[in-house]
Amino acid sequence: MQTTFPRLMLDHAKQRPEAAALREKVYGIWQTTTWSALAQQVRELACGLAAAGLQRDDHAVVVGENRPRLYATMLAIQSLGAVPVPLYQDAAVTEYVFPINNADVKFAIVEDQEQVDKMLELREQCPQLARIWFDEPRGLRNYDDPGLASLDDLIAAGQAFGTSHPGHFDAEVGKSQPHDVAAMFFTSGTTGNPKGVVHTHFSLLNRANAGKTFDKLTANEEVLAYLPPAWIGQNIFSYAQWLACGYVVNCPESAETVMIDLKEIGPTYYFAPPRVFEGLLTSVMIRMEDAGRLKRWLFDHFMDLAKRVGPAIMDGKPVSGFDRLHYRLGNFSVYGPLRNTLGLNRVRVAYTAGEAIGPDLFTFYRSIGINLKQLYGSTETAVFVCLQPDHEAKADTVGVPIEGVEVRVADNGEILIKSPGLLKEYYKNPEATAEVLTADGWYHTGDAGFLDAGGHLKIIDRAKDVGKLMGGAADGAMFAPKYVENKLKFFPFIKEAVAFGDKREKVCAFINIDFDAVGNWAERQNMPYAGYTDLAAKPEVMTLVRECVEKVNADLAQDQMLAGSQISRFLVLHKELDADDGELTRTRKVRRGTIGEKYQVLVDALYAGKAEQYIETAVKFEDGRSGSVSATITLIDAKTFGNLKAAA
């Protein structure tokens, strides 16, 4: 599409001025912003930024939850030909320093007092950060720092500037071209400093429209925007596709009200990483554990039926008349109420991406009538590379290449992509750009996989993470850690897992319990506990987790290729893996290398056959203080199974 984000916004305002563009829940009541009101707000914000000195090609950071005025600010920045740089709102102050200095950011627009405090704190390291505007004034009445003002002040300044420069806004919007830079997204920086991924209006909107065409999206969709806007996954669904389609984006009141807001809105188009679907399933399982015997029997009975015939019904495949009738009864008594409880009753299309989803988890949602599909993409590809067509959703693939995309598998198994949605460059990093972009336009994804006979792409793991077991009975067997970890995380009692095994003779794993699910289970067992560390060390919890591990091992034994990846030994970590401690990215991806180095003593103890190991770990608390947590961790042997398929 040969246009820009501000022009699309103005088109919607002209063609359907009174239609809802954005909704925000404030004090329990949904407030609507129409397209015409949004256009006026963008105009005033842009004029205010122009008066403050924002120039074409400048960078401005935007930090906060999904908020209508922050969306309007991004459009205002783009209207002047400048570049919005969304950053994670839950990042530590130190994580902002590199992006702000790397992009020479002078202006910041943030949500509330928490973000203002962070920006003021880092001014010493980022002296060029001259102006900071905030959306939510609560707690900021007595702040008098230079360059600090509210968005209301910025809008007032914009109104005055617009009066004295009546043609400025329209002239600036008219200057921008589709191949101008539209936004910059910083990667999570798993190794070294994060990289600024530069995208144009064309690259982002081309992919947004390809997804729109693929799933027949219209202006009638309802979307809930609850994930960090700094993550390109959320940004493409609630910003790029929002403007491409003109549908309504709904912003929850807070992180705590997301589940309530999800039920109230009933989105028709839904997007979430696997961890969100894992959390939803865990909440269901916790509720069912507390249900009466009859309800539990009904749930188990109909879920067994759903697992057997639900995906076939969803895919339009033949099912016996009896099973179809039986499933309808289950839909009335279990599946429908369950979808309603999850807030997904109206969903027409749901996608998961960000990392691989466990096959069991994927099948669960499709079996109860939710059209959950997988997509494949990354920050560098503007998300949309492969999508799963309706009736062709498979648990072990990520879909087919969509319009404009070419996929090639290199000799070493790495996936290469050619697409109109590829990044322009890594900002100020030509070496890194040259590493991923070939001279003839192919992008190195770093993922290992292959195209199956039906043209679907199958991702095994990150190419650098796929390894081989060496020595022992499984010598030479392939080791795909993410595949093993996802199978573990299907269980509601397991929140996170980290598998080790490359160039070793067996697989071992670290496991984080899900504190809510295991805590609920412990309470029903009348088992007292004093926090996460105490609960994780309970022998009964170890037994509970071992049962989950051994079920995964039995399942892996059915797979001839991955039977060697069964988990021989494991431990339950004494603390939750945390992004603030550098163990996860801000999108909750495991930093496997960092964890392996940080907990090397535990890895060594697992492979040395020790029964227990003492460890003390430095942690950061939510209030910014540092401390430590220590424990003597029990190391547990798990039962493994012979390759059942090979034996058969």
**Structure summary, number of beta strands:** 28
Cα-atom radius of gyration: 25 Å
Question: What is the CA–CA distance across the termini?
Answer: 55 Å
Q: Taking all residues together, what is the mean pLDDT?
A: 91
Low-confidence spans: pLDDT under 50, at least 5 residues?
A: 644-648
Give the C-level CATH assignment of the domain at 5-199.
Alpha Beta
Q: Approximately how much beta-strand content do the residues carry?
A: 15-25%
Please state the overall shape, judged from the principal axes of the Cα atoms: globular
Share of helix, binned? 25-40%
> What's the helix count?
22
Report the major sheet: 5 strands, parallel
The CATH topology of the domain at 5-199 is Rossmann fold
CATH arch. level architecture of the domain at 5-199: 3-Layer(aba) Sandwich
| Strand neighbour order, sheet with most strands | 4-3-5-6-7
Describe this structure in words.
By secondary structure, the chain is of the alpha/beta class. Among the domains are: 5-199, Rossmann fold (3-Layer(aba) Sandwich); 397-464, Luciferase, Domain 3 (Luciferase, domain 3, Roll); 467-647, GMP Synthetase, Chain A, domain 3 (2-Layer Sandwich), CATH 3.30.300. The strands form seven sheets. The protein has a five-stranded parallel beta sheet with strand order 4-3-5-6-7, sandwiched between helices. A hairpin with a 6-residue loop joins strand 24 and strand 25 (507-513). Helix 1 packs across helix 3 and helix 2 crosses helix 3. The longest helix has 22 residues, at 293-314.
